[in-house]
Design goal:
The protein is an all-alpha fold. The protein is built from 14 helices and 2 strands; from the N terminus they run αααααββααααααααα. Helix content is 55%, strand content 2%.
């Protein structure tokens, strides 16, 4: 259990060139509990987040974004593979150092220049542009809200207003390279401003559509992610996948819905039963129990865990010893390999494919 104590101020040393430069200083200071801030960092790589990805359907609840997503085939054929490739396309911005994050952001903005035009079908009268500053910011805000609202659900920790603000500033710091030049393409500077910015769009621009409702309903028919799998592995996994995907999709629908802004929850067309709501309460209780009892290494991504260990060594002044140098070298080598793997599988284009086809929710 986290208690409101220990509010040590951030050190004033020059951490130039160290991992601690990557925004960690924003999570230290008066009124911020170090334990809570560390738990927040661990949450960023939590396996529990896999229960909530459809919370980011708020993106396609705005009609221009839905038109772009539909036209560019994001949900066509195997959209699970497409989603994985989209993640690999931005992996440098997730695990990279400041220079790698800047380059990843530059590449993403350049690639999204081709995402513009008129929608099709239901959206035929909608004109979209991925680099519309307001919509670009909405996409980024969706990801930030996803992290913030799932933190207390997964961990049972209720952050103070000051801690929420510090957490948001940390997220914003690491996404700053994604900002566009115009004033409407800037991220909010505080959590309070973020909530105002997000709610303004949610309450005025979010709307339901057949595409949005169909895609959310189709989560119980998730296609098997096959990226990097051999044909034999796919064949072996397919029967088992078909057995579990229905309930797995149900869990994603339920957990994601329970975190949504009311306007988005209304738009997706999903309505949990009383039994499902009770099931969600059990899931939350189980996650919080596991969070309290599992070791840190089991509660987060190994890269995040290693970064935290290295940062603590930096704070303790252990940067000249062999233990730090060896651990840092292993960390950097693994980061290099992850980014190289992402380069191998990232998308070639975010634009409209030359040919469209396939069932939008998989088979």
């Amino acid at each position: 259990m986290v208690t409101p104590m220990d509010t040590r101020s951030a050190p004033t040393d020059d951490f130039s060139g160290r991992l601690i430069d990557d925004g960690a200083q924003l999570l230290r200071g008066p009124g911020l509990r170090p334990k809570v801030m560390r738990e927040f960092r661990l949450h960023l790589g939590s396996p529990f987040l896999s229960l909530f990805p459809a919370a980011m359907f708020d993106q396609v609840a705005v009609v221009e974004v839905a038109a772009a997503v539909d036209a560019t085939g994001r949900f066509a054929e195997n959209f699970a593979d497409r989603g994985v490739r989209s993640l690999f396309s931005s992996i440098g911005g997730v695990v990279g150092d400041p220079a790698q994050r800047a380059e990843s952001a530059r590449w993403l903005k350049q690639m999204h220049r081709e995402v513009h035009g008129n929608g099709r079908g239901y959206y035929s009268d909608v004109r979209y542009s991925a680099l519309n500053p307001e919509l670009w910011t909405w996409i980024a805000n969706s990801g930030h809200r996803f992290i913030m609202v799932t933190f207390p659900l997964c961990t049972g920790i209720i952050p103070t207003s000051a801690e929420k603000d510090a957490m948001y500033r940390f997220l914003r710091y690491n996404a700053a390279d994604l900002e566009l030049r115009s004033s409407s393409g800037k991220l909010a500077t505080t959590w309070a401003e973020f909530e105002k910015q997000y709610n303004a769009i949610a309450e005025t621009r979010v709307s339901s559509s057949p595409f949005l409702r169909d895609q959310y309903a189709g989560l119980t028919k998730l296609p098997l992610p096959t990226l990097g799998m051999s044909r034999a592995s796919r064949s072996a996994m397919t029967p088992f996948w078909k057995l579990i995907r229905g309930y797995g999709g149900h869990l994603i629908q339920l957990c994601s819905y329970m975190t949504m802004h009311p306007a988005v929850a209304e738009a997706v067309g999903y309505r949990p039963s009383r039994a499902a709501e009770a099931e969600f309460r059990v899931i939350v209780a189980a996650m919080r129990l596991l969070w309290r009892t599992l070791p840190e290494k089991a509660r987060t991504d190994s890269m995040i865990y290693e970064r935290l260990q290295l940062e603590q060594m930096e704070l303790d002044g252990q940067t000249t010893g062999a233990a730090y140098c060896d651990r840092r070298a292993r960390f950097e080598e693994r980061r290099r390999r992850i980014i190289a793997y992402g380069e191998r599988y990232k998308l070639d284009s975010f634009g409209v494919p030359e040919s469209r086809g396939g069932c939008p929710v998989g088979r």
